[in-house]
Amino acid sequence: MYAGVRKLPPATVRTITADGTSTEKRYWDPVFEPHPDRLNWDEAQWGEALIDSLRVAVRRRMVADVPVGVLLSGGIDSSLVVALLAEQGQRDLATFSIGF
């Protein structure tokens, strides 16, 4: 049933025509270079920019019609999200973790 099925590379669209031929097109190729305005940033400036970006991301996801909850993975990423939620004033946060 799954013979010949494979994942596409990241950021890729495959178009299959009626005759069965296909083409792949990569629609996004990230550039891993600092913005020219940030070439001279030191470690502290990069750290502050990172935490500011994380704060914005968490704040945007706090807008909900239902109570906000967090699935804890046991790693630093989910712990950081909970800490940032608390910093933003989130109270009575429901947290969940799953054991296998």
Question: Explain this structure to me?
Answer:
With 100 residues, this protein is of the alpha+beta class. It has helices at 43-61, 76-87, and strands at residues 12-16, 22-26, 69-71, 94-96. The relative contact order is 0.10. The mean pLDDT is 90.
- Average pLDDT score: 90
Rg over CA atoms: 21 Å
Largest sheet geometry: 2 strands, antiparallel
Strand order of the largest sheet: 1-2
- Dominant shape: flat
Number of helices: 2
Series of secondary-structure elements, N-terminal to C-terminal: EEHEHE
Strand content: 15-25%
Cα(first) to Cα(last) distance is: 30 Å
Would you tell me the structural class of the helices and strands?
alpha+beta
**Total strand segments:** 4
Secondary structure: helix percent: 25-40%
Q: Point out poorly predicted stretches.
A: none
Protein traits:
31% helix; 2 helices; two-stranded antiparallel ribbon; 100 residues; alpha+beta; 4 strands; single chain
Summarize the structure.
The chain is an alpha+beta fold and 100 residues long. It is built from two helices and four strands; from the N terminus they run ββαβαβ. The chain has helices at 43-61, 76-87, and strands at residues 12-16, 22-26, 69-71, 94-96.
